[in-house]
Design goal:
The complex is a heterodimer of chains A (113) and B (112). Chain A has 113 residues and is an all-beta fold. Chain A has no helices and 11 strands. Helices cover 0% and strands 56% of the residues of chain B. Classes of the chains: A mainly beta (113), B mainly beta (112).
Chain lengths: 113, 112
């Protein structure tokens, strides 16, 4: 596609519910990244995919967070049993190679009530 | 752990004044990238610096990478209201070049 897309753009959920966030990277980009940005803060690295494999999951904050990527394209980030501190904007980025420019999607704003 | 510090946190300038944001890494970087995020938007890539001591210019923006590849700066000459936003540096550690460690950002406000 023309750019990285993410869905939903906004998600409001109740504490304890599971949520699934989706990222569609730029076609042909092999590297995909998930970040979290809390209000007024910088970007926190969550996970990196090269193809379908995730060589670095070190940024995932807890075992409630998981991510997968299938077909070397779409990725989903799942948060189980959401907590209020999970509220943030979740940004996805893709690049053609792991040292190349990262192109960011518009993000999903998650609010946990 | 590896950290990238960025200062100042905020800068409020009069239109026409210059602006500089500084970035310091706790470890040597393979490269450093700069991004701009407009209010309500997502980060947009500005530039990547790879070589020690490298200086690159984009119109009124000047980017520098330190000799030791641990610090960087972004300087904007004669700011305009369109420069408003948060500027992030992001460094790739030498031992994990795929990873970008973002600074906390400098929020620039420009008074017309």
């Amino acid at each position: 596609g023309a750019g990285v897309s993410q869905s939903p753009s906004n998600k409001v959920t109740e504490k304890g519910k599971d949520v699934e966030l989706r990222c569609d990277p730029i076609s042909g980009h092999t590297a995909l990244y998930w970040y979290r940005q809390s209000l007024g803060q910088g970007l926190e690295f969550l996970i990196y995919f090269q193809g379908n494999s995730a060589p670095d999951k070190s940024g995932l904050p807890s075992d409630r967070f998981s991510a997968e990527r299938t077909g070397g394209s779409v990725s989903t980030l799942t948060i189980q049993r959401t907590q209020q501190e999970d509220s943030a904007v979740y940004l996805c980025a893709s690049s053609s190679g792991h040292t190349d420019t990262q192109y960011f999607g518009p993000g999903t704003r998650l609010t946990v009530l | 752990g590896q950290q990238v510090m960025q200062i100042p946190q905020y800068q409020h300038v009069q239109e026409g004044e210059d602006f500089t944001t500084y970035c310091n890494s706790s470890t040597t970087l393979s490269n450093i990238q700069w991004y701009k995020q407009r209010p309500g938007g997502h980060p947009v890539f500005l530039i990547q610096l790879v070589k020690s001591g490298e200086v690159k210019k984009q119109k009124r923006l000047t980017f520098q990478f330190g000799e030791a590849k641990k610090n960087s700066s972004l300087h904007i000459t004669a700011t305009q209201t369109t420069d408003v936003g948060t500027y992030f540096c992001a460094g790739s550690p030498m031992d994990s070049s795929y990873k970008l460690i973002f600074g906390s950002g400098t929020r620039l406000l420009v008074r017309p």
